[in-house]
TrEMBL record:
Domain ABC transporter per the UniProt entry, residue ranges: 16-257
The species this protein was found in: Pseudorhizobium tarimense
GO terms, molecular function: ATP binding
Xref: InterPro entries: AAA+_ATPase, ABC_AA/LPS_Transport, ABC_transporter-like_ATP-bd, BCA_ABC_TP_C, P-loop_NTPase
Entry keywords, A to Z: ATP-binding, Nucleotide-binding, Transport
Domain of life: Bacteria
Protein name (record): Branched-chain amino acid transport system ATP-binding protein
Length: 260
């Protein structure tokens, strides 16, 4: 198994790492011997063609799947055999490709619901609704941070698709993640929403690590500090975007005629 590399003094600390990460389904290796280092205050992209193993890596890191081999370390703790709910409470939080908000609650109430767990209110059903008012200030801060203050009283169902994804980021941030995993955050968005969400992710990453699966290479080039390219479950190349985009293997396997 590969050993963790010595971290240069001028680089941000590694907060999430994997060594020799492998997942085998029957005779098929969906992920094979993947090493990954995600650093604080950086955006790290996981890219590759369909079927490359990106979502499987996400599921392994967040413990939705158990690895067949290898190890995962979060904030200095081995989480290889840790349950997914405990991993989330430790600060590793993910979003999904499909927006997950409560459509018949207001934007503000969606965030207040998300804030209940870190404020130890999630299981205290006997408390009056007014007890949630203490969450309002933090909820308003989160909505302001993602540019949703003007829609605080709108139903989530009435938001555009892009704004729903922004609300999902706000509810994810309510859990105060140390490492945020975003699964195709730009999927299905128009150019205006892409620019808005890119700015939000860039701002979010000033205080935490972000690992994202993303197919929009313009976004990857714009906001990502480090890129890992997967092909058939293995790492094909890694480095900054300028480096990987010039790799002929990456161009052949993934980028095709895409301009670097």
């Amino acid at each position: 198994m590969a050993q963790a590399a010595v971290q240069p003094h001028n680089e941000p600390r590694v907060v999430l790492s994997a060594r020799g990460l492998t997942k085998i389904f029957g005779a098929f290796a969906a992920v094979k011997d993947v090493d990954l280092d995600v650093r604080h205050a950086q955006v790290h992209a996981l890219i590759g063609p369909n079927g490359a193993g990106k979502t499987t890596v996400f599921n392994l890191l967040t413990k939705f799947l158990q690895p067949s081999a290898g190890s995962i370390n979060l904030l200095g703790t081995d989480i290889t055999r840790t349950a997914p709910d405990k991993v989330a409470r430790m600060g590793l939080v993910r979003s999904f490709q499909i927006s997950a908000v409560f459509p018949h609650l207001t934007v503000l109430d969606n965030v207040r619901v998300a804030l209940q767990r870190p404020n130890h209110l999630a299981t205290q059903f006997w408390l009056p609704m007014a007890s949630l008012n203490r969450l309002n200030e933090r909820a308003e801060e989160l909505l302001s941070a993602v540019g949703l203050s003007n829609e605080r009283n709108a139903l989530a169902a009435d938001l555009s698709y892009g704004r729903k994804r922004v609300l999902e980021i706000a509810t994810t941030l309510a859990l105060d993640p140390k490492v945020l995993l975003l699964d195709e955050p730009m999927a299905g968005m128009g150019q205006e929403d892409i620019g808005n969400v890119s700015s939000i992710i860039r701002e979010v990453a000033k205080q935490r690590a972000v690992l994202m699966v993303e197919h929009n290479l313009s976004v990857v080039a714009d906001i990502c500090h480090h890129v890992t390219v997967l092909q058939r479950g293995e790492i094909l190349a890694e480095g900054d975007y300028a480096t990987v985009s010039q790799d002929p293997r990456v161009r052949t396997a993934y980028m095709g005629t895409e301009e670097a």
